[in-house]
Amino acid sequence: MDHSLVITCIRHGLTAANREKRYIGWTDVSLCQDGMDSLKSSQLLIDRPDIIISSDLIRCVETTKLLFPGISYSPSSSWREINFGAWELRTYEDLKEKPHYQNWLNDPFNVSPIQGESFYEFSIRIWQAWDELIHLLMSRKYRHAVIVTHGGPLRLLASTFVPDRPHFWEWSFHFGEGCTFFHTEQTARERRSCISYSEVRLTEKENG
Question: One Pfam family this chain carries (predicted)?
Fold first, then answer.
């Protein structure tokens, strides 16, 4: 029997570098106070997961602890954002006159950040992490997983699994929010279109 799998993917909360529109891939920055306060006062209306996987970067770890207090999780470097290399913590204004940066803006899927990660390398890493997660869920007969990660991995998954929105840049996720993919074991294992999906939004806690 082909059982159902539910994979909820959440983007980390707001950081000061996000607010300043800096590139933060592997740079390990914490949530800003506003980001923490927003998560503390909110909740995700989802069922309790069987397993939580978090990017090992501190902004995702902090998000996980605030959204799922008291629930154990597994940190993983595989679920990091793309590595922006020499452009980490830089802004568009810092880089806009550089020819290689302009080439990357025009073709980000084939041009790599200087000293950074290519889109191909990034994709291979994320799909290996996905395959490992699905294997784990099936071997343990788990049905619901949460992944706390970054905007890039979320875009990659969503543009693959939702057939009516197949373009990477069509997707955008608010901080602390994301989406849930409803798969069968087969569609998840074969990285095919999900059966359905739903957006996951933060809601204010009843006690404030």
Answer: His_Phos_1
Residue 81 is predicted with a pLDDT of 98
111 within some domain: no
Return the beta strands (E) in 12-59 as ranges.
42-44, 51-55
**Looking at the domain assignment, is residue 109 inside a domain?**
no
- Tens of pLDDT along 73-91? 999 999 999 999 999 999 9
Q: 10 Å Cβ neighbour count for 32?
A: 18
DSSP state of 113: P
Structure tokens at 11: 């983007």
Query: H/E element holding 187?
Result: helix 185-189
Residue 168: which CATH number?
3.40.50.1240
Could you tell me if residue 100 is inside a domain? no
Euclidean distance between CA atoms 193 and 158, whole angstroms: 9
Q: How confident is the model at residue 127, as a pLDDT?
A: 98
**CB of 139 within 8 A of CB of 128?**
no
